[in-house]
## 1
Amino acid sequence: MRALPLAIALLGLPTAAFCANHVVTIDGMSYQPAVLTVKRGDRITWQNKDVVPHTATSAGHFDSKQIARGAQWSWTAGPKGRHDVVCTFHPGMKATVVVAE
């Protein structure tokens, strides 16, 4: 049975056992951290602790739609690349997610 995780790793496929969870806090009209490096298959959760709704949007990659005050939204990282994130309600709010592997 130990051969299965090794085979999956050799194929480069993410598995829940090897994926990490990351949290981006939305507070004070900003994303914290502003730059996040993750691996393919990692889960990123945006938690809105601000007093107004926000989005986590990367054109062509993902769009949280409205994340209400006190709510959260998650995305699982796909292929390697850089994703510039913006709040569509507040375009001055920006962040970057880098999928490194």
Note: The longest strand covers residues 21-27.
## 2
Amino acid sequence: MQGGESQFGSGPGSFDPNNPYRPAAHGPGGPQHRRSSAGIIIAIVAGIGLVGVLVCCGLCGGLGYFGMNVFSEQVANELRDNPILREHIGEIQSFTLNFTATAAHDSEDVFVFDVQGSKGQGVVTAESQTIPDDSEAVISATLRLPTGEVIDLLPEN
């Protein structure tokens, strides 16, 4: 360094540690701007709003999932002892609502379940009706086996 120069340079606009009132040089990125307090407040409010939306969606989705599990369990319980289902599937190990296949049906009362049992697996398509005690009554049901054969589970109806 030359005499009188500091390690921070001596050109116009350079920082002089002995004179805090002298402006600092702008680096290659240009001048640094301070964020306005309004921008910070808007960002905080937007963040809180986003968190609120995510929490609401999560709660609604969770309640819907819980409700569908309860519904699936009611239908499974009603069909669990069906002699035709037990003959082909055996003891039910899983009875899961198939959302995609259910959505493909025109009726809002028809639901499709993937069923796995001790003897085999299949797809149960059931039409249900809500009865006064807020449970489901299966009014018709079929079982589709992996071979493509469709069997009526409630032939007396």
Note: The radius of gyration is 34 Å.
